[in-house]
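Model: You mentioned two targets. I'll fold them one after the other.
Researcher: Yes, keep them separate.
Model: Target one:
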Amino acid sequence: MRTLRVRIKDKHAKALDAMACEVNFVWNFVNELSYKHLQRTGEFFSAYDIAKYTAGASKEGLK
């Protein structure tokens, strides 16, 4: 396996941190939602099911 190493310029660090926070927020939301659904029904969410819950996502957060 090969690993690509790329140096990110410092001027992009703030934007990349902001994008990482957004991805982490959605990841945590879907993870919590999936866990609650699994506890209640005993079934896992499909990607189709998750799309319905994240359809309202915007820059302001999940609505």
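Model: Target two:
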Amino acid sequence: MQNFLSQTRRISEEINTLTEYKEKFIYISNTKSKSVLKESEERNLESQIKVLNNMFSQLSSKIKLELKKMSEENEKIQNEEKESNFLYETRNNHWQVLTKKLVQAINSYRESQVNYNNIEKDRLKSQYIIAKPTATEEELEELTSEKGQEHLKNAFSLGSSSAKQMYSRAKERSNNIQKLAESVEELCQMISDLDEMVKSSDVFIDRIGVSMSSTKHSVKKTNKDLESALRYQRSAMRIKRYIFAGIGVVVLIILIWLGIKFLGNQNSGNGGNNN
């Protein structure tokens, strides 16, 4: 049990690390979105965001696998120790707290990614409109799709070096948006997997509850049977005592009657001798 508690503390600390990643992500993304930066500075921040996304994905996946293994161990313990649910319930309570905490951390990071991605989409649209003021709404929506690359290429088709540079940055932004969208989708899938784990655990707990309810019903029935038998035994013993007491009274009356009769006969005999 001590090893289990140490494991839960470590996992909890790792989830706190995920929260720290989210705070760093928000800080870096806000710096990039709200500051006037050089191209090199923007790329540096974009690289930091990619690193954070990878670190978050790797650590959250690791924790998810550990929690899955912990859930399987909990179920194994419950199946082996049918007479006592204390150990299972203690472990499962810790597991549920950690799983919900992980879901919250992942969802919070995902929301930060979505907010940042929406800002980047708006900036990409603004770049495109500058290059092509007559851009349609459909073209703007397609900028982060496969067609978007062709739209960007056509919009920045001028031969000047500045146009080529603008196209290069717009293309990079479009690629970053798509990669971030994939990261968001990955986190959504992870949340779905964790929710499924929790549901499976709840079903198992419900099954345990039914089993415990059945056991309690059997215990109650047994107790009722024992109480009925005890009442019957007490009643039988009471009747026996009444019978024995009645016989005792009858015997006592007979003895008294015989004693009186004996004394009466003895007195009669003594009177005859005196005469």
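Researcher: Noted. Anything on target two?
Model: The chain has a mean pLDDT of 81.
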